[in-house]
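so my prof wants the structure for this chain in the tokens format not the other one, which i didnt know existed until like an hour ago. anyway here's the sequence
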Amino acid sequence: MKKAATLLLFLSVMSNALQSQVRENVYFHHLTQQNGLLKDYNWYIYPDSKGLVWISSSNGLARFDGIHVKYFLPNDQNPNALKGINIIGDFIESKTSDIWFAGDNYLCQYVRNLDKFLHFQVKDSIGIPESGYYRLLTQDIHGDLWVLIDDETIGSPVYKFHIDSVSGSGQFQWVCNLGVSANRCYPIKNKGEVTGFFAFNWAEKMSCLKMLLPPSADTKTLQFNIPGSTETGPVLDVLDLNNGLFYVVSDPGLFLVNSGNPVPELVLKEKGITSIAQAPNGNLFLGTELGEILEVTTGLNYTIKERFLSQKQATSNSLFITHLHIDANATLWLSYYFNGIAWANLNKTKYDVIQHNLDSKKQPSSIRSVISDENGQVWGLSHRTLVQFDASGNASTRYHAHHDTFPFQKMLFIAPQTIGLLNHDEIVAFDLKSKQFNQIARRKDNEPGYLDFCSIGLQSILVGMFEGVKIFENKGKKRYEKRNLNIVSDSSAYTDLFCDHQGRLYIYQDLNELIIFEYKSGVLKKIGQPILFKAEITSWAEDNTFVWAATNIGLLQIHKQTNQNRFFTMNDGLPGLNISNLVLDKQQGLWMNINGKLVYYKNGKAITFSKADGASETIATDGSSALDANGALWVPAVDGLIVSRENATKPYSGKAGLYIDAIQINEKTDTTLRCALTGASQPNDIRKIVLPYEKSNLKISFLSMEYGDPENNFLEYQIIGADTSWIRTPNPGYARFLGVREGTYQLRIRAFNADGIPSSDIRTITVVIKPPFERSPLLYLLVVLGAISIVILIFQYLRMQERRMQAMRQQIADDLHDELGSVLTGILMFSDALRMKASIQQDQDSVYKLGRIGQNAQKTLNSFRDIVWSINPKYDRMEQLVFRMRAMISEASDASMIHFVFAPQLQGYEQIKLNPQLRHNLFLVFSEAFNNALKYSKADKIEIIFKVIDQKITLEVHDDGVGFDMEAPASGNGLSNLHKRARTLKGVFKMESKTGFGTHLFLQVSLREHDNRINMLWKGRIQP
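here's what i got, hopefully its the right format
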């Protein structure tokens, strides 16, 4: 059967050649064995929902992403690899995005997120697989697959394959046997349920077997003959409309078959049709045996709307189209019999490319510049020739400069009927009326530099020469009067000149500065300071507000009123920096040549046109483009003139798919990498990556998949956490994480088609880079725990030492109190007893001496008690100091008539501990100041202020007594002792006194300078 079918194909190729004129307005991309396919003979083409294109063939399964072709070939050693290479059926994509297809002896499932194949076979009662060509028919409303096995020995059994949604396993269920070899079988559906089949035989005559499933089982064999004709032919392709209608392609033409009507209807009689597909707008596209595509409108009449070729060379059988498919983006895919595959977008129209075919023996054929006059007449410049084009773009007339000169490089209108031409040595005027060339200016012999010129109001021209800039005023009768532009230096070459519509002159000194002048009443006036920028200007344009200059480092914009300037670069959406051929259209959009490609730029968005649009890849880089009176754009190119007669700036709306192609870690592909969220192993399904710090060299490669012009797609990405700006990259592109610190990053990617239309979704991949061990949370935890342990040990040790010190202080205080205190008390008692005895005996000398001994003993005892009080740890708290001060004041109050005021303010510091030295010195300062006031001030009132605020102790002693002269020499050590103790306390000490106005003592000490910090931390008393 297969040999017969192949023979029929070869016979059908020998039909008549194409008779109608074919219009070439669709650009086809081609993929053959020379650029990626294993073989040029393929079967079905299926673009899936992810943007990938699957290609079935007799030697394996191919997947195309617009750039690369990936092959899946059989591998008996790998159970997850493809089995069998003959894949001759169509594809079905499941709701989980898995791809189902059939081949020799297998139904196959490609599990996308795991990148593996699962194979299923029908087995008989004893477990032996049934062999034959498995054909995948359809998927019903329940998600079950319908499979036919084509084998002449067993007929054509049909099975329903049910997939368990939990386990993923499948089971075949026998439905019926068509009983004939049915290599073209199409289900009949009713509301998504399969109710029967049309089985078309590939035979000499068009016929089919119609079978309805129970409960209304019916089997009929129908012979299809064209009414009133003897023409017959095999069924070559069928289009299932899913409503009981089928389009059938046969040798006579296109038939419409109704499942309820046994008589086919010939709706289009056309020889040589081989395949069929339907576009989203309802039109039919038919492929032929000579590579021609027919677009057919449906309705009351079936009419061929357009014909176009998929390739120019329609020779032999190489362009026989075996399969057509149209995807949701209106991209037409086709498979040739022996010439690979091709595709074209039906919504993407091409420019017209005009081959002007000048006489190559006399002059080169390339046009380097074009301009348009006020009547819309287009003129082109080629070498020493001026070419006049008609409305169709044909070179109607040529005018040659018959004197020996360099090739012309630039042209523009210098008067309404005069074209100025520039070459290396001279400027020539061409009069449109007389058709005569006339020299205006010439460079001196051996003079360095280059000429340039511009027109001033179509009356005069400005010429840049090495010795300065000259003005040539048009005096009529082919006579130009020259005068110098004295305001410009004569020492430099001015190679780029431009005059806007307001008469403002822009004069650019080569690689130095831009000078702007205003031309009024024949006077040139400088109105702007030089704008320094190292650039090379290639072309000028202007709108109502700005003057634009194309340079080799970007696009320069100059405001006409303010002279403010700005450079536009790739950060502003330009696809490159080397710009020339600048033209402003009626919609204020800029056409330009960037790196040899035609680019349209407006509002920060650029559209690049390539071969897919009919534009040449080699736009003239040193010429000029022009708009004619009808708004058509004329662009010079190496291979001809590119002319846009439609709105070519309308972007193509095809959405670009986005595909993560590969993920490399430390420059190697890690096959063990899994998504941290789902466990998926395929790069395109990974949404989160967690990596150790030593594997943070991460490279993620991605593709933009849109097939209208795949070579010019591009991508943008940003890495949130490292850089929030969008970075543009060509297709394919990649993002690299290199040298980043640990942390969580968000990689966001979006894809664009060649016209700058972004993809509908932005892919986000979370990248988590763990810190190295020396910066890991575990290490931090261990360090913190270790530090806490050390601090606790230190606290415990210091606390223990403090307790030992307190115990020692307590022991010393007790010993001093018990031993020295009793001794001093005994001395005092004995001296008093002896003094009384001597007094009775009237021994005055002994009375005096014993009195002195008693006084010294009492004084020593008082000092001793102060020392014991300062040493004893039970008096360390602030309240004990205040209690001692209060006791001393109370004792003095009982013995004198002085009014004492003492109201301490502790504000929660009552229980805070003071170190012995601080407590002792504070009390001594108080005691010294208080006793001095008590003894010498003769005061009526003594006020003592003692307060603790914000860890600062303030002591003030103020009396209203007689005071003293601070400048007079001191008679004792009291004041010096007070200053000494204040310095010991590291406090602020002030003392003020004036004869007759009392005395005021001020002391302020910081607790932070004296408190035991460890003890305060231990007690939690750093803050009150």
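also thought this was worth mentioning. Residues 136 and 147 are 5 Å apart (CA to CA).
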